[in-house]
Design goal:
The protein is an alpha/beta fold and 392 residues long. It has helices at residues 2-8, 13-20, 24-36, 102-120, 158-166, 175-186, 246-249, 251-263, 270-273, 283-291, 295-319, 335-348, 351-354, 368-391, and strands spanning 40-45, 55-59, 65-71, 76-82, 92-94, 127-134, 138-139, 144-145, 170-174, 195-200, 204-210, 213-215, 323-327, 358-361. InterPro entries: ATPase_NBD, ROK, ROK_cs, WH-like_DNA-bd_sf, WH_DNA-bd_sf.
Length: 392
Amino acid sequence: MLQHLYTKGPSSISALCDTIGISAPTVFKMLGELTREKIVEKRGVGESIGGRKPDLFRLQKNVIYVICIDIELFKTSMAIVDNNNHFVTPVKTVSVTLSRNRKAFFETLLEHIRELIASANIDETRLVGCSVGMPGLIDPETGENYSYLLDETDGLTLREAFEQQIGLPVVIQNDVKGSALAELRYGHAIGRKNVLVILMDWGIGLGIIMDGKVQHGSSGFSGEMGHMPFVENGELCYCGKYGCLETVASGMTLSKMAREGILSGQNSIINDLSNKEIYRIETELIIRAANKGDQYSIQLLSNIGTNLGKGISILIQLFNPEMVILSGKIAAARQYITLPMQQAINTYCMTQIREKTQIISSELGDESRLLGYAAAGITWFFEAMIADVKDR
């Protein structure tokens, strides 16, 4: 029942009966107990074709909490979120660089996690777990990342190492899966069956929603869009292959192209905006320059958008989605990315398929992945409880 109320939101007794498969008097009795324990509350009424409108019940706020951690290449964001998706702490962003060494990474991260918990002023017995999202090839079943933090700690998987350090159950997933789940629960993908979510940050990732569910693939590795072969005899990608899409269409490539242009004497306000510190040039700064009318920045973004559009056209023809949602730092460029992207899609994608696909930018904001991680973590908690009861 709690799992249903978390996933579906405010529900009537009839809806709970249908989901759980028990009688209305039993559901009513259970709701009474949960209400007295201040876990569930009556909130509003539902729709009715005729007669009395049914009462709706929902989870009270602050019943359980989960620590959500979004690990990027050069920074990490974290917050504590409750079962109603409310941030009970402000998002804390720290400069923790993702490395291959677990020990150094954990030493820095744990200090910030302790500070976050101390600042929350919550009942720590209601802190049920930690949900972590990060880039890389991640198997959510084994809890291992095959791209980052590779050095083993006493033979432990990355999830086990996290759990040992934090002292809580841990869920680990790929960052774009978090973006896709956030869109499915709270964004443009609500109520839709077949949607692609493109995460455009330092790298390029793909979240696949099919039949209304986020798809992980047999090993959790689905959606490695950025490493599709794209350029014949192209540049060497960090994955070890040549000519991947990321070498011509990622945030890392965008920054690299801007730095190379400035060093070669390109006239651009990027140099001034970075205080002539070219290694501080990142996606946000290039977008800011484009918004000020800087033609070099606009051209850089246009090139990225064209390559992304060609890559997305392949995905549209493979998956035939009803919608493609653009998220991440590069998506913030809006028309500087979307216009050349749409032109490339028009060029490379079959008309009959393209016309049935809506291209739209995410509106969830910078904290959306944390909401996706919260959904994954709390769902895991309820599923673990249900499995535990069934095993008894």
